[in-house]
Amino acid sequence: MTKKMYGGEVNALEKQTENNNYQSPFEIELLFDNKKLELFQYLVIMYSCLKDNRKRKLSIEQLLYFYTIIFSETDETKTPLIFKYNKDKSKINEVLIALSSIKFIDVNGKVNSPISNLKISITKQGIEFLEEMNSLVLDEYISLIRNIIQKRPYEKNSIYFKNLLYEGNYSNEN
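Predicted structure:
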């Protein structure tokens, strides 16, 4: 016996979506799928560093730096970001595996290399994916990320970054 809900089967929506292959625009998927947004942001970081700074390979430390800086510049949160940074650091392996599996990045290093020694680079397919998108919204988002990266270039022992992590972002000034 199947349960009825609002005049139909509980699984009616699931059955309907199984029968129809819905394709939503990538912009909509980014709004509702945080995993895709996260992958997209990391890909744009690598793209921006390649195009603007001619930096072909980035370390995981550099990726996390830019990811955190972008969050601080685009989010209303003013509190210290050390917990978010540590959470992102623990999840970056999943991100790199996902981007590598769709051939958007290359992970350079030896099997026995420490993770901190790995270098990540965007592939030709990753570049083409970003450059061939026909979306004004995504183009503006890429431009925003590129501007933030240009404004806050990577510095190994950045005082600004340490303050952001441990004291919070109470001002967007140096």
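Summary: Strands lie at 4-5, 8-9, 58-59, 105-108, 119-122.
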